[in-house]
Amino acid sequence: MKQPIYVDNNATTKVDDKVLAEMLPYFSDYYGNPSSMHSFGGKIGYKIAEAREKIAALINASPKEILFTSCGTESDNTAIKAVLRSRSGKRHIITTRVEHPAIKNLCEELSGRGHRVTYVPVDSKGILDLDYLYDHITDDTAIVSVMWANNETGVIFPVEEIAGKLSERGITFHTDAVQAAGKIPIDVQKNQVDMLSMSGHKIHAPKGIGALYIKKGTRFSPFLIGGHQENGRRGGTENVGAIIGLGKACELAMEHLEDEAKKVGHLRDILETELLKAIPSSIINGNRENRLPTTTNISFKFVEGEAILLMLNEHGICASSGSACTTGSLEPSHVLRAMGVPYTAAHGSIRFSLSKYNTEEEIRYIIKKLPPIIERLRELSPFWQEQQMPT
Ligand code: PLP
pTM of the full predicted structure? Predict the structure, then answer.
């Protein structure tokens, strides 16, 4: 079996060969600065415009509504800070308990600077408490930010419904669609989303490129002040090769979205079904009815996720766990804690995130290798042994 068996695609993805081929000439042959007056640089402006069109097309936006950034994190920071700056009288932010650190840690920092942040809870399936969200809107609310799909569980949030409700009340709505864009259909013409974050390296473009959709008419003030690039909305010479790569990746994602979602979803379902069958005391974290087709988060009770990952790694399998090593202790992720997943299960959670490059052979390999790993680790677990004792 060719290794690695990479099922950590929510962390990052392989750059598509077609994307790489499209980018490479812009590092070697066409290296001019798109802002230059001469044609060698100026010509590159056309390629950037083409990439902007492709990115806009993926979410049915207008190219003018797309701002290039350096990553999903910058898109998220730009959106929230731009709105707060342009609505300086308002200091209240509403977000969820399960956001990526790009929003979560930003909101924590902002709350230390005098902003008030409301965190909307989720239930045990990771479903958002919409009444709580709507009940906490006040005249002071500047922005609501709710991710489109959760990076750890794949759970999809009803952003279109939320956006509609907020638009009626004149509140700016941002969504972190870093895990959703290119994997499920998004049409900004059909909803009232004001701002939407994307990241290249989650959809087979390179790292270091992102985009922010800013709906026409949305109040905005730039995060990076400098040159006149991006119509004065973000200073800094464009990351030309990566922008072209993101454009190509969006074009490919759009072309194959339905087929790939079907294929990957089928593999994910085989993986889940077979693992649950083979391994007792294992549970799926997150709402199975409404998830990204690429993602499953499974808890194997009474074992440590890190130990599972290390043993999977010995077989060339790359996944990730739902706990993070902070100051030497393994803390279950804030997402699983927000869902109230018991510690005994949260500690042993593994996220498998698939892409178009995974094959059924690889999935069957994981299904074969994982059950004996869990069995071996449970033999060493006093908590598991205790569970097995007759009462
Ligand atoms: N938002 C979500 C939901 C993510 O999953 C990630 C990355 O994992 C980010 C934001 C940050 O994106 P980037 O790594 O491009 O900064």
Answer: 0.96
